[in-house]
Design a protein that fits this description.
The protein has 3 helices and no strands. By secondary structure, the protein is an all-alpha fold. It has one domain. α1 runs antiparallel to α2, α1 runs parallel beside α3 and α2 packs antiparallel against α3.
Length: about 100
């Protein structure tokens, strides 16, 4: 198995996440919370894989691209989830007053 193929596989997985975003506004608070946890776990695991590639790989441009796309994609998704999550919490709090 060639290392560049593994990096490309990770980049494709990250890109698929980006293209396959969910409709968080129609989810319950508990579901949104789980999604946030899942995205954060995905980000952590992805960076862990990228760190391993840095140790074993001789393609710094591809590794840098993987870092950039991972950071941008996951942070965008986390921000989107947080916004909806906070709106839902506000709605619940206002309803309960």
């Amino acid at each position: 198995m060639e290392e560049p193929d593994e990096i490309q596989k990770l980049i494709d997985e990250i890109s698929f996440r980006k293209a396959n975003s969910k409709d968080y506004k129609n989810m319950k608070v508990e579901e949104i919370s789980k999604e946030l946890k899942d995205v954060m776990e995905f980000e952590r695991e992805s960076f862990k894989k990228i760190e391993e590639f840095e140790k074993t790989q001789d393609n710094p441009d591809l590794i840098q691209y993987a870092k950039m796309i991972c950071k941008n994609t996951t942070q965008r998704e986390i921000t989107q989830i947080q916004e909806v999550y906070l709106e839902k919490i506000d709605e619940e709090y206002i309803k309960s007053k």
